[in-house]
């Protein structure tokens, strides 16, 4: 489904190589986790896949179901089924949460040549998804993320994901700054979306999220590359021993 080959990326502004040849395939139905020290390029990888400005791909490819992502505009990538839950969700003053969700969903439908969702169906859909995430009616009416707590923002990211039903979900440190209860809610929201046709790339610093979102595959990223890949036990190993052993092995 998501296939990344020898992806090399530098900053546009300065001559700094950030990704130095990332190879990664996430199959439909699987959850892949990426862990790694700060500054190893995890967020950069997610930004480049989502199409954020400021990065130049110098080598390699990234495709979703065989379609080249790197040539697309960010909204085309979203319509193709890619979703990125941000480490720092953005606030959008003046735009109600419901309006935002409906606009995003309809834009995606339009790009796929589908009809707009009816007001009734939309309301039903959002209420159902919001319930799992303990997002109340008042939060749905407020401007997107404005004045939301850290936990509310992250849950709201998962709500967007649940409403848009992407094929490929990338979560960048969605657990950072969350207390245990908020993290469990986020994990439940993600688990509810797990399905044979959907892939996940879960970027996290901490093993504890992976207690709740059980990954199929764990990758360690360091210095712009995936340096080790294993099963869930690899995350436990990192939790106990840190990255030093793996990095030494790699060097
Ligand atoms: P991670 O998410 O693994 O912590 P990042 O992808 O955020 O890592 O960053 C990887 C490296 O790229 C870091 O050294 C970071 O300082 C650098 N970097 C990323 N974006 C920028 C930028 N816009 N300007 C300067 N340095 C950047
Ligand atoms: Mg970081
Ligand atoms: Mg990061």
TrEMBL record:
<dbReference type="Pfam" id="PF00005">
    <property type="entry name" value="ABC_tran"/>
</dbReference>
<protein>
    <submittedName>
        <fullName>Fe-S cluster assembly ATPase SufC</fullName>
    </submittedName>
</protein>
<dbReference type="InterPro" id="IPR027417">
    <property type="entry name" value="P-loop_NTPase"/>
</dbReference>
<feature type="domain" description="ABC transporter">
    <location>
        <begin position="2"/>
        <end position="248"/>
    </location>
</feature>
<dbReference type="InterPro" id="IPR003439">
    <property type="entry name" value="ABC_transporter-like_ATP-bd"/>
</dbReference>
<comment type="similarity">
    <text>Belongs to the ABC transporter superfamily. Ycf16 family.</text>
</comment>
<keyword id="KW-0547">Nucleotide-binding</keyword>
<dbReference type="InterPro" id="IPR003593">
    <property type="entry name" value="AAA+_ATPase"/>
</dbReference>
<dbReference type="InterPro" id="IPR010230">
    <property type="entry name" value="FeS-cluster_ATPase_SufC"/>
</dbReference>
<keyword id="KW-0067">ATP-binding</keyword>
<dbReference type="InterPro" id="IPR017871">
    <property type="entry name" value="ABC_transporter-like_CS"/>
</dbReference>
């Amino acid at each position: 489904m998501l296939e990344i080959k020898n992806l090399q990326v530098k900053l546009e502004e300065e001559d700094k190589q950030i990704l130095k040849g990332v190879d990664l395939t996430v199959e439909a139905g699987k959850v892949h986790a990426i862990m790694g020290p700060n500054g190893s390029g995890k967020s950069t990888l997610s930004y480049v896949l989502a199409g954020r400005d400021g990065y130049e791909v110098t080598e390699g490819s990234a495709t979703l179901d065989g379609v080249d992502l790197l040539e697309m505009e960010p909204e085309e990538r979203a319509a193709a089924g890619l979703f990125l839950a941000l480490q720092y969700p953005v606030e959008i003053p003046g735009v109600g949460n419901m309006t935002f969700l409906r606009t995003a969903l309809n834009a995606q439908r339009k790009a796929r040549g589908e009809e707009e969702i009816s007001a009734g169906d939309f309301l039903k859909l959002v209420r159902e998804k919001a319930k799992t995430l303990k997002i109340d009616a008042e939060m749905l009416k407020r401007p997107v993320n404005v004045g939301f707590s850290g936990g509310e923002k992250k849950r709201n990211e998962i709500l967007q994901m649940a409403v848009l039903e992407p094929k490929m979900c990338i979560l960048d440190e969605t657990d950072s700054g969350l207390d245990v209860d908020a993290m469990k809610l986020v994990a439940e929201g993600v688990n509810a979306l797990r399905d044979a046709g959907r892939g996940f790339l879960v970027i996290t610093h901490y093993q504890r999220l992976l207690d709740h979102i059980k990954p199929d595959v764990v990758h360690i990223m360091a210095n712009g590359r995936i340096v080790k890949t294993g099963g869930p036990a690899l995350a436990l190993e990192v939790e106990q021993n840190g990255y030093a052993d793996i990095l030494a092995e790699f060097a």
